[in-house]
Structure formats: C-alpha cells, structure tokens
Specification:
The chain is an alpha/beta fold. The protein contains eight helices and 13 strands. It comes from Helicobacter brantae.
Length: 224
C-alpha cells in the first residue's frame, strides 16, 4: 500500500517515512500543497497524511483535489496544536481524521490500519459484479470467479478508481512492493489473466485499454 506524506518539517516527514516503510508501506513525501497535488496527480494513493498548515497554504486547499480524483482515499490531517477551528475546517473539508502533534506513532499506525481496513473491507459492487478485497473474492450473478493474486489486486485497484485512466506505472507503484524491480509487462500479463478468467467466460468487459495511456475499469459500460 502506498501513502503520500505532505509535511514540510524535515525531521518529522523523514521519521514518518521510515516508520511506515518499516511496517511495509510505500511512501512518497511532498513538502507543499503544490508538490502534494503533483504526486496525487501522477499516482493513486491508499492513504494521505498531511500537515494542516503548509508553506503555500492549508490542508483544506489540497484535500479537494485528492478527493476529486480518489474520493475514497482516507486523509489524515496533522496539526501542531489542538485548534477546534482547524479540526472542524479539516473534517468539513473532506479529511477523515485529525491528529494533534506530538504524534504518538503507535496510535497513528493503529489509525492508519483502521482507515485502510475500513476502506478495504467493503465489497466493491457494480450491478451483478461484486469484488471483495478482504476475502479476495469476485462474484458475478452469485457465481464465484477465480481471480487471485496480482490480477485480483490489479482488478481491485482499477475498480476503486472506476472511470479513471490508470497508467502501468501507477499500477506498479500501487501494487508491487518494489516496482523498480519488475517490468511493465507484468501489468499486461495481469490484465490478460483478468480477461481470460473473468471477462471472456462471462461475456462481459471489465477493463478497457486506453492506447498509450493505461487502463480503465469500465463495467458496466455507461449508456451513451
């Protein structure tokens, strides 16, 4: 799972990144709203941690752009002091949690796990098709379809970002622990397995290829 940290205090974002990496998360660090918008524009994140006050504005300015593209991505806001107005503004602005510094990292990790568990435990449903990330199950018209491993993770990631074009690089970053050690053709293999195991036998189309840009979850296709 990949987490974006938007924090301008070097010691804190370094510590956050190291602790999260130690617990198996992949992290990117941005030190401003501008950088945060850049990263969220090129990658899909499972969770975002952002400081409330940043050098070029407030967290409430970056939250909408993240939620606009990935509305279910949990966002945790950090604050140097407990300010009721800050907390209300952050939560009303789309944040999912608000934590006051100094950070208790055990509590932060527990909250991250809770948010990710809540997000990942809900079945993703589109009409007759249900994808359950927790149980790694795909159900179509009450029939279970055998899609496991990386193909299942690719299918789930694309389904969570339905109607968005997701590039091979974004899929690699989101799913593979060490994306730099694998080649993009593993995505093609995973997509082909989804089509062979799910689409072809059932006569449906779940993923479409967008030439030179990536893939898009398209089930069910919208009527024109």
């Amino acid at each position: 799972m990949r987490i974006l940290i938007i924090e301008d205090e070097p010691t804190l974002h370094k510590t956050l990144s190291e602790i999260l990496d130690e617990f198996g998360y992949q992290t990117d660090v941005a030190e401003s709203i501008k950088d945060g918008e850049y990263f969220s524009g090129i990658r899909n994140y499972d969770l975002v941690i952002t400081n409330y006050i940043l050098p070029d504005g407030l967290a409430t300015e970056v939250i909408p752009s993240i939620k606009a593209t990935t509305p279910r991505t949990p966002i945790i806001v950090l604050s140097a002091k407990h300010n009721k107005e800050f907390e209300i503004a952050a939560l009303k602005g789309g944040a999912d949690d608000f934590i006051v510094k100094p950070i208790d990292f055990d509590i932060l990790l527990a909250r991250i796990e809770a948010h990710l568990r809540f997000w990942g435990s809900n079945a993703i449903e589109f009409g007759d098709l249900s994808i359950n990330p927790t149980e790694e199950r795909v159900i179509y018209k009450n029939r279970e379809v055998e899609v496991k491993g990386k193909p299942f993770e690719v299918l789930t990631h694309l389904a969570r970002h339905r109607d968005q074009i997701v590039s091979k690089e974004q899929l690699l970053d989101a799913i593979w622990e060490e994306p730099e050690l694998v080649t993009p053709n593993v995505i093609e293999v995973a997509i082909n397995q989804i089509r062979q195991r799910l689409d072809k036998p059932l006569g449906i189309t779940t993923i479409e290829t967008v030439r030179r840009r990536g893939y898009r979850f398209c089930y069910p296709k919208k009527k024109k």
